């Protein structure tokens, strides 16, 4: 039933006895470095790519405190690269990709890496670092070929010139897409090697089309490089890139990276450039630097220590709901308010952008259910001719149950969209770069502080504005206060739907629209979503979990009965039954044909949904129009003061003061 979107060696050499020399760039200026005239001796070359050793304290201090290197030329625009890199690359960046001005990390990194130097870059995600390392990589690749005109003759899977390692499939696909845009028209071939995809298919692509640049995740890269039957080799490797180093190490890929490095050519015999990027510089990252980089590498730091991190600077609002049953309708009200008032507010704030949001949910089934409900919304419940409340704004979903191809397609579509909503599990929470996301919305408290921060990091990227919204059950506040203390969260009371007593049948337009859409989804699917969400809610709501899930199921999703739960949730409420999950919903046979719960045909053909579906037919809602005929329910954005909202305000619910938040 799931669809992608709605219509629309290391060689064990001698350990160096001295600390590695490091050159550090200026925070403000980016200059060209003239290659050193002093050759690196064989003795010094044997000091890198060793077995893991402790990065010396003096080297770490030197990386932080070295005197900035000076030069003669500052890079500001990509047009300045004319004469320094292949002209096709400059044309692709400025004309096809429509990027003219360099970001800070691009200016500094490109200036210091075109001479072939190793580089350690410290930069946040969303600052343009992908292009920062791709420019020197593709230039080294094409410079190593006889001429760009003969590049296709060199397309052999056994002659890979660059390897780029990323911690996740989505990030690897994102990097590969950017690389393909950059090398368009040059004959340079980019391929991927990521888990969760068909290995044989990718190997055939490499063998049939050739591969100059291979982008992948650590496990799959080691798999294809170590296999004697894959034909994937890199005897002339010129570039080795580790992106998101801190995440690679946090995710336990240290050994995989070591094993991959051991399969690559001896760096004392092949002139290889190593580029590493990390948002943080902890001891593990510095140890990896010592293992991988040549002496005299450049250290580029573009993070201002005085600049507040995203999770402390982005406006963050918290909506305290009467129950989870209020969640979908409250989000619907907020989205409609923004879109209704967008045009009027745009005249006051020229930087205001169309609504483009990621809605994070805590389980895969709840993610899919939310997508289906919002997909089926009607302005007038029951009247298919009344249209959708969001007009032509596209909706998407992404989670682990989709195939990798479907997830890639969804990411590409949402990335290119001017406006839209992506319903997502945590597969997009770390590192994914979706331009112009205006809102990150989280329904229910995430499992930990780190998850909240990574989700929030999908907005306010590339120096653009954004905001975060967190929707909490009133009995979730104790858990949220413990997990999110210290974050600048403010209570928002602008949404009347959040406090409606739906158990006692209080309602409004938004609630009726959600209820009507939910009835169009098979009861078993609704039951399964409640059941999986209940496993999360038990740890969040404690003794209130059973009541919370019952109200969500019956009053939020229109089920006749709440599903029974196994284990702790039942025992904590003194319930002795042990029925199968979802028993309250009846058997599938009792509902007759599932066609009754199929698509509202008025929105185009939804295609098949085989195995969480490929949904190859996405209907006809491809136009991202802005039919702003939505019914307004309040003036979104006009309540600047929001009463007394300092540190979650002062309203008390469930025995917990709102003032506990933000401490």
TrEMBL record:
Residues 568-663 are annotated as: Disordered. SUPFAM superfamilies: P-loop containing nucleoside triphosphate hydrolases (SSF52540). Residues 580-592 have a biased composition (Gly residues). Residues 632-650 have a biased composition (Polar residues). PROSITE patterns: HELICASE_ATP_BIND_1, HELICASE_CTER. It comes from the Eukaryota. CDD domains: SF2_C_DEAD. Keywords: ATP-binding, Helicase, Hydrolase, Nucleotide-binding, RNA-binding. The keyword RNA-binding applies. Residues 342-503 form the Helicase C-terminal domain. It catalyses: ATP + H2O = ADP + phosphate + H(+). One of its GO terms (molecular function) is hydrolase activity. Belongs to the DEAD box helicase family. RNA helicase. The Q motif is unique to and characteristic of the DEAD box family of RNA helicases and controls ATP binding and hydrolysis. This is ATP-dependent RNA helicase. It comes from Aspergillus violaceofuscus (strain CBS 115571).
